[in-house]
């Protein structure tokens, strides 16, 4: 890598890229040289009304032209299948509504508090369990912010604070820097974690302004990015992740196992290889949360086990993500393992 390549982007340039994201399915189809098979029709339009299209243009450039099966396109293009109902697919599959004790803070697991910093995302992923989340009730704004900090400060068992959303990096740097300052001032908080898809979908987000506060955080920072397919990781993404590493962040990736996107041993191995080249280790491979409208993405558990066994056969242990599912009420993410038939 050339020395100049690890410089952050000029401050603020990402905001225009964020604002000018593709926001309509017909435009997305046009940009990628779509065929009618890619999407469209009244049911797809209903899906689009239910959960709006949002695709940053830089991400759209990573979509192979004229290929309705493209693994990035499939993650972001509304399709008719979203409007069909499927047994067991609900609006709140992971029980977050019950877990939200007060606005903006989710505490499901020991020692970790997750802050829903904002409802906003830079990309809308069709499989997302948050597509029905009533963010208006939970986003961390105004008084809720102060209340959330008070609750974290009052609970000495909380050693890690996770900034999540939505995507916390859609929030301007001055607000983030203030929030993080207040969090790191709480003596029992030993780690800060950021769950974000922005370094993948708008790598320009890793700019001088972000680095200015990020590099000065006094507790160790873990950044968990979210890529599902190797094609999402291009030179700009590698640069963004290199800058974060230069700020001493630990980089991990979480993926969702998605039919038609990454449900092959080859795709999963290539994703791990690309992540490693970019400086991130695979952390979790989530089974799909059974959210209404996402049934077409489901990979059956037996197939998921077969795939992860195939990855384990080919890759070093540190490049094999943990296959997990979210179970409402469970004390942690639940490992998906071969059950003993005996
Ligand atoms: C996933 C999740 C976490 C983090 O779990 P880890 O196993 O530590 O990655 C924390 N809080 C909530 C509410 C979560 O959904
Ligand atoms: S929360 Fe994550 S998975 Fe869901 S739409 Fe936003 S970026 Fe995509």
Outline the structure in words.
With 342 residues, the chain is an alpha/beta fold. It has a single domain (88-335), classed as Alpha-Beta Barrel (TIM Barrel), CATH 3.20.20.70. Helices cover 33% and strands 14% of the residues. The protein has helices at residues 13-19, 25-31, 42-50, 57-60, 73-76, 96-99, 135-138, 142-154, 173-184, 198-201, 208-214, 235-246, 265-277, 301-314; strands at residues 100-102, 105-109, 112-116, 160-164, 191-195, 221-225, 250-256, 281-286, 322-325, 334-335. A 10-stranded mixed beta sheet has the order 1-2-3-4-5-6-7-8-9-10. The protein is globular and about 55 Å long. Pyridoxal-5'-phosphate binds at residues 106, 108-109, 112, 114, 162, 332-333. Iron/sulfur cluster is lined by residues 121, 123-125, 128, 130, 166-167, 197, 226.
